[in-house]
Design a protein that fits this description.
mainly alpha; 16 helices; three-stranded mixed beta sheet
């Protein structure tokens, strides 16, 4: 049974190794090789990358400055600005995420430096996270490889066979208030301060380095804002950004007709095309979320930077034959809890009645 830890945002990139998975013969592939198409979009664009840095990091810093001056005027206004800043922090996390995949800049060094800086903004150790997220890309939808970099998901058989305390723990972890409220704060503020036992020495060292950088950040910001002023602002920013980020990650894989399969029959392409949604968001939300709604494209090739995902999706009709979720439809995913292996879909707890 996978570890019941909130490893929700937990890419070296495994796409190249796993992309050679056999294509299921029952699926109508309209191109001889989708890899040739996505390869056109894997080349980083320096102008787009720099432009994205300017329209993301600068507003985020400016909002912190404005919050400093509003503290003596109106605390509700300060907190409101903090929640607005969290939208830019979501976009910063997408940049951090692309750096981890080596897709944001062509230069590995540039990606690593920017990855550390944006990691500090999001309180996330760059190398350690990169390794854990790579596991997610290498086995997303594989029932035999759950536990690292995913949302804890039990099958119906596992749940029915589990002792009462495991069921209780699972129900607690899958409660929306916990999953999108407590877990994000615990993940970014506490969990990521520790190393994972399977991580390499270099990856573990990145956690210690980030912890030191965060300590310096807290001291400096406390001297500027005052500790408790900084604490409450950072709490509002982290809680809002974390909740939104976890929701995006969750809904992109946890929808009714998603894809899960045993290791022997697991397929990389099907995992990307059927197990990753196309989250069709309003334009503004799509901008703040860095196009991550085109998640099927991202899982086909994580070497595609966020600023190229939309163009790749629109380049081939095959890419558009994926589970499409609107904002309203995605809310149904809040009630889905267990993978029904017989019917190949996620179900609610109340669907267990009679079993």
């Amino acid at each position: 049974m996978p570890q019941p830890l909130p490893q929700l945002f937990i890419a070296p990139d495994l796409t190249e190794q796993t992309a050679e998975a056999t294509v299921d013969a029952g699926v109508d592939y309209k191109t001889a090789d989708w890899r040739k198409i996505v390869k056109q979009y894997t080349k980083p664009n320096r102008a787009k990358a720099i432009g994205q840095l300017c329209n993301t990091l600068i507003p985020y810093v400016v909002l912190w400055v404005v919050m400093f001056f509003t503290m003596t005027i109106s605390w509700p206004l300060t907190i409101a600005l903090a929640m607005f800043a969290s939208l830019f922090l979501v976009r910063i996390f997408i940049i951090f995420h692309d750096c981890g995949h080596g897709s944001f800049f062509a230069s590995k060094k540039a990606n690593d430096i920017l990855g550390f800086i944006t990691g500090l903004c999001t309180l996330t150790p760059y190398r350690h996270w990169r390794w854990q997220h790579a596991v997610h890309h290498g086995c997303s939808g594989n029932l035999d490889e759950r536990g690292i970099g995913d949302v804890w998901t039990m099958t119906v058989a596992e749940y029915l066979a589990a002792p009462w305390y495991i069921r209780l723990q699972y129900r607690f972890m899958r409660n929306p208030l916990v999953l999108f409220g407590l877990i994000p704060l615990g993940l970014f503020w506490v969990y990521q301060r520790f190393t994972y036992k399977k991580a390499s020495k270099a990856d573990k060292r990145s956690v210690y380095q980030m912890n030191l950088a965060i300590a310096i950040y807290v001291v400096v910001m406390s001297l500027i804002f005052g500790f408790w002023n900084f604490f409450w602002i950072q709490l509002a920013v982290s809680a809002t950004c974390g909740g939104l980020g976890v929701w995006l990650f969750y809904v992109q894989h946890q929808f009714e007709d998603t894809y899960w399969s045993e290791g022997g029959t697991w397929d990389y392409t099907l995992s990307a095309m059927q197990g990753s949604s196309f989250y069709k968001l309003p334009a503004a939300l799509n901008w703040f979320s860095g196009n991550i709604g085109y998640h099927h494209i991202h899982h086909l090739s994580s070497r595609i930077a966020n600023y190229n995902l939309k163009a790749c999706h629109e380049a081939e009709s095959y890419f558009q034959q994926v589970p499409e979720l609107t904002l309203r439809e995605s809310l149904k995913s809040l009630h889905l809890r267990l993978w029904d292996e017989e019917n190949k879909k996620l179900i609610r707890f109340r669907d267990l009645k009679g079993r």
